[in-house]
Design a protein that fits this description.
heterodimer, A: alpha/beta, Glucose Oxidase, domain 1, TIM Barrel, 8-stranded parallel beta barrel, 21 helices, 47% helix, elongated, B: alpha+beta, Histidine-containing Protein, Chain: A, 4-stranded antiparallel beta sheet, 4 strands, 27% strand, globular
Chain lengths: 560, 85
């Protein structure tokens, strides 16, 4: 077995025979021409055709590989007709009486060298572009055909560095993965591989010997390892990893678009927890129904001073509009305790978890709260917004927060700024106090979302960040689960819905419990959405409910 | 001749895509546009030469516009830099 290490630029595991890319190298002839005008015309014709071909390739790439790949070809077209490039060729033909092929080849070499010598990875990678453009023009001049993969079975393709035009022209059904000698994470091979969802490893140098051709190779794009003629143990391990990936993909293929409904017809919404507008892509990719918890802290953490209204508005608006009409519940500022921000100038506290944090800061410093709520309501015109307040312990806090919402709505109405009148306003249930008075809180809000990490910490009086307390910090504790049931019952009695937005929501060993007590929504990390959906669709609540409730509420110690 | 200075904010600097669009933009005018960075200067119509200057984020460059439509051209090209680079 031979192990080779490169740099993984597209994840996944692939197994297959190694195949070296055959490039139809146009050998560049070199001779003196007498009719330089005719030679120049010959170049211009080839250049024109190259530009046209590149335009067609851009269209093909736009359909197959996305906008990014398409832009590359458009850039190539510009390079092919670049004035500087052209003038250089013209002078070689007219002054040095060189034939067109030699003039193109020399000019490309000169420009490629210029890029290769620049001290920036992006520009260095452009050397490959220049060579690719030149190869195309040379191919047209000499009538050469483009290279490709000539194999009856799919292969792992090895090459020095594939040019973009080469990658687009490849028969994709024949390729399991890529290995290149050179290249960078921003090279075309890497981009293409990621778009195709197959592994790619770059920068292996001359480690891929020609004699390996046809041998079985296993590549792992997540760590850049390549095994040639792997031994039994290594092979088995890699195949297992490949199986797991296939399963995840299969999950996606099977459960995407399916409702989260149990066998007996009980449905539950599966939403996502996110921390910035960029995460929306992952939410949609994993087919979540909405965002159940959008932590707004990132806005404050990314700034050196209080983020102003417009800045916040743009970020919320971006997330809302990108979610294509699906609900986005944004949690108002939740700092303090383990999340500190310098410009807030918070005095040091003996016991920050029980201190001035989250909604408490907002109520103590209404100007901060006012700015955030204005930004939120303004953004509500661009999607389906929900707002929730963290760290509630009393009814008066909720009333005071809601009063601020009303004030903001009134201001916006007076200023003629549009907003959604029906924004749902809810609270986090993450303190035992809130759970115990949830019957009263339910009359004040549109929904509850249980933050199970803090609820566990406060209920069990157990610091979740203290590693020595691992076995004491038990979110499955009957006390925590009983509180959740109590919250559900009180919410439903008052006609509002309840969700869970803590880590616990994705804990598949509790899905049956959550369904049995009547949780309406689980908000989890994007990658947990489909496994959770699979789990839900496999449960018959009628069968499990009674035993779960007896174990939870009875006076004998059950499994929980 | 009209001149203006501009500090690049694009994280990649003057890279292929905006440089290409810049060339198209300049072709709309008859004026000659020169990009100057320190001692070096290039005709902005020359895409590869322009990229070859390796102008990065934070670099301040001077753009000279000279020709019959220089007033109009300088204004539009400055707007282009602000919007794209």
């Amino acid at each position: 077995m031979i192990t080779i290490q490169g740099k993984g630029v597209s994840t996944g595991v692939a197994v297959g025979p190694l195949y070296f890319y055959h490039r139809a190298k146009s050998t560049v002839s070199r001779y003196e021409v007498t009719d330089t005008d005719a030679e120049w015309a010959r170049f211009k014709t080839a250049q024109e055709r190259a530009v046209k071909e590149l335009g067609d390739l851009a269209e093909k790439a736009r359909k197959e590989a996305g906008e990014e790949a398409a832009l590359l070809f458009e850039t190539h077209a510009m390079m092919a007709e670049d004035l500087e490039f052209e003038e250089n060729i013209q002078s070689l033909i007219h002054d040095k009486k060189l034939n067109a092929e030699a003039a193109v080849s020399d000019t490309a070499a000169q420009f490629a060298e210029m890029f290769a010598m620049m001290d920036d990875a992006y520009f260095q990678a452009r050397a490959a572009d220049v060579k690719d453009v030149a190869e195309r023009i040379l191919g047209i001049l000499t009538g050469a055909v483009q290279g490709g993969v000539d194999s009856p079975v799919p292969v792992i393709l090895a090459a020095d560095d594939l040019a973009p035009s080469e990658t687009v022209q490849l028969d994709k059904s024949k390729i399991l993965g890529f290995i290149t000698e050179g290249g960078s994470g921003s090279s075309h091979t890497a981009i293409l591989a990621r778009t195709m969802g197959i592994p790619a490893i770059i920068g292996v140098g001359d480690a891929m010997k020609p004699e390996y051709a046809g041998h079985e190779v296993i590549i792992d794009g997540s760590n850049g390892s390549i095994l040639v003629d792997a031994d039994e143990a290594a092979r088995a391990k890699m195949l297992k990893k490949m199986e797991e990936q296939k399963k995840t993909q299969a999950l996606l293929d099977e459960f995407k678009g399916k409702p989260n409904v149990t066998k007996d017809g009980q449905s539950i919404r599966i939403y996502c927890n996110i921390g910035s507008p960029d995460d929306v892509t992952a939410v949609l990719k994993n087919d979540a129904g909405g965002v159940g918890l959008f932590r707004s802290e990132f806005l404050y953490l990314n700034c050196d001073d209080y983020p102003d209204e417009d800045y916040q508005f743009e970020a919320y608006k971006l997330a809302l509009s990108n979610m294509e009409g699906r609900e986005v519940i944004i949690r108002t500022l939740d700092i303090g305790a383990d999340k500190q921000i310098a410009y807030f100038n918070m005095p040091k506290e003996e016991n920050p978890a029980l201190g001035n944090r989250a909604l408490r800061i907002c109520l103590n410093r209404p100007e901060i709260f006012h700015t955030q709520l204005r930004a939120l309501y303004r953004a509500s015109a661009f999607g389906k917004l929900g707002i929730m307040f963290p760290m509630v312990t009393s009814v008066w806090e909720v009333r005071e927060a809601k009063k601020m919402c009303e004030l903001v709505k009134k201001e916006l109405t007076n200023e003629g700024i549009p907003f959604d009148e029906d924004v749902e306003v809810g609270i986090m249930i993450e303190t035992p106090a809130a759970a115990i008075i949830s019957d009263r809180l339910a009359k004040e809000v549109d929904f509850f979302s249980c933050g199970t990490n803090d609820l566990t910490q406060y209920t069990l009086a157990c610091d979740r960040q203290n590693n020595d307390l691992g076995r004491f910090f038990n979110p499955h504790h009957t006390a925590v689960l009983r509180l959740l049931k109590m919250v559900c019952d009180n919410a439903h009695k008052n006609g509002i819905w309840v969700g869970i937005c803590g880590e616990l929501g994705a804990d598949l060993s509790l899905t049956e419990t959550f369904l049995s007590i009547g949780i309406d929504e689980l908000s989890v990390s994007p990658r947990s959405v489909l496994p959770l959906r699979q789990k839900v669709r496999d449960i018959d609540v009628r069968v499990v409910r009674e035993k779960i409730l007896t174990d939870l509420m009875g006076d004998t110690i059950g499994e929980i | 001749m009209k001149s203006f200075e501009y500090t690049i904010t694009d994280p990649v600097g003057i890279h292929a895509r905006p440089a290409g669009v810049l060339v198209k933009e300049i072709k709309k005018f008859v004026s000659t546009v020169t990009v100057n960075k320190g001692e070096k200067s290039v005709n902005a119509l020359k895409l590869m030469a322009l990229m070859g200057m390796g102008i990065k984020q934070g670099d301040t460059i001077r753009i000279d516009v000279e020709g019959a439509d220089e007033d109009n051209a300088a204004a539009e090209i400055e707007a282009f830099f602000k919007a794209n680079l």
